[in-house]
Design brief:
The chain is of the alpha/beta class. 22% of the residues lie in helices and 27% in strands. The chain has two domains: 5-153 and 281-330, Quinone Oxidoreductase, Chain A, domain 1, CATH 3.90.180.10; 163-278, Rossmann fold (3-Layer(aba) Sandwich). It is built from eight helices and 16 strands. Strands 3, 4, 5, 8, 15 and 16 form a six-stranded mixed sheet that branches. Strands 11-10-9-12-13-14 form a six-stranded parallel sheet, with helices on both faces. Helix 3 (152-161) packs across helix 4 (176-187). The chain is globular. Bound molecules: zinc ion (2 copies). The site of one zinc ion has 5 residues, from loops.
């Protein structure tokens, strides 16, 4: 039997630090599973939530949408035996009946609910999740290493899929998503060109170690024109810079859930059939495809673990860009 109470970190209002609190262990409803959290990744989107940049969060809310846990118990209609290891991603619920859900675009569902935003997430010892949106995970990765796959990996993969046929691929913002997707891209034979903040030699060396052909500052022009560029940093100023670096007919794909305003730009930057597009959320198909691929190619996430109680510190490290790879919280 689970303990009656367990710890979680909650956000009570925008701009406030998370508060470590006891709450009753959540009870799974029909179709839901109760998981004991083994690890939860820290995502840039958690900062956008805390900073009040995402509209209408549930408050108070337990953040965290890169959750790895094991099933304690399931509600009616669930079939996972206790002890099964599952991953819980950002996409926590969809309606199943709108035109988006019925056309393979459940990532755009108008009534979708997202983990750690509208549904309590994984900065906690326990979480409940709709079993239909959970994933089984590659056995080769432990909980902490599997956690970043669930957002940085999954949404990174959906972003990369928009540029799967690019030979020369630029990646702007070399953090958690980029370090996973660079491994996918080089495995598929793409040339990776990595762009970081000017002077961020550590991130540039990290990109080169992961197989990038070239690494430099975002303001620099790469040695060749790119077929496509992925932007993982939430910085709108990168869009015109990336457009300058792509060839005619190339695309710039923005993988973030939030981005600062894109500055106005001359039409000549999109002339030549260059296009800009965003990537929203994920579908379950993205998840199963990516997690199978991650197991097959032996993706190696680079992580830094911190105890759950130090979540506020982990968030500040993500904000400062002080990490190579991903921060992961571990319940004590
Ligand atoms: Zn829907
Ligand atoms: Zn995320």
């Amino acid at each position: 039997m689970p303990a009656e109470h367990s710890l979680c970190l909650r956000l009570h209002g925008p701009g406030q630090p998370l508060v470590l609190e006891q709450r009753p262990v959540p009870v799974p409803g029909p179709g839901q599973v109760l998981l004991k959290v083994g690890a939860c990744g820290v995502c840039r989107t958690d900062l956008h939530l805390i900073d009040g940049e995402l509209p209408d969060p549930k408050l108070p809310i337990v953040p965290g949408h890169e959750i790895v846990g094991t099933v304690v118990t399931g509600g009616a209609g669930t079939h996972y035996p206790s002890g099964t290891r599952l991953g819980v991603p950002w996409l926590g619920y969809t309606c199943g009946i709108c035109e988006f859900c019925l056309s393979g675009q459940e990532n755009l569902c108008d009534r979708a609910a997202f983990t750690g935003y509208q549904l309590d997430g994984g900065y906690a010892e326990h979480v409940v999740a709709d079993a239909r949106y959970c994933f089984e995970l590659p056995a080769s990765l432990d909980d902490a290493h599997a956690a970043p796959l669930l957002c940085a990996g999954l949404i990174g993969y959906r972003t990369w899929r928009m540029a799967w046929n690019a030979k020369r691929l630029g990646i702007y913002g070399f953090g958690a998503a980029a370090h996973l997707i660079a491994q996918v891209a080089t495995h598929k034979g793409q040339e990776v060109y990595a762009f970081t903040r000017a002077g961020d030699v550590i991130a540039q060396q990290f990109a080169l170690q992961l197989g990038a052909r070239w690494a430099g500052a975002s303001e620099e022009q790469p040695p060749v024109l790119l077929d496509a560029a992925l932007i993982f940093a939430p910085v709108g100023q990168l869009v015109p810079l990336a457009l300058r670096a792509v060839r005619k007919g190339g695309s710039v794909i923005c993988g973030g859930i939030h981005m600062s305003d894109i500055p106005s730009l001359p039409y000549s930057l999109i002339w030549g059939e260059r296009c800009i597009r965003s990537v929203a959320n994920l579908t379950r198909r993205d998840g199963t495809e990516f997690l199978a691929l991650a197991g097959e190619i032996g993706i190696q996430p680079s992580i830094e673990t911190l105890p759950l109680s130090r979540a506020n510190e982990a968030l500040e490290r993500v904000r400062a860009g002080a990490l190579s790879g991903a921060a992961v919280l571990i319940p004590e």
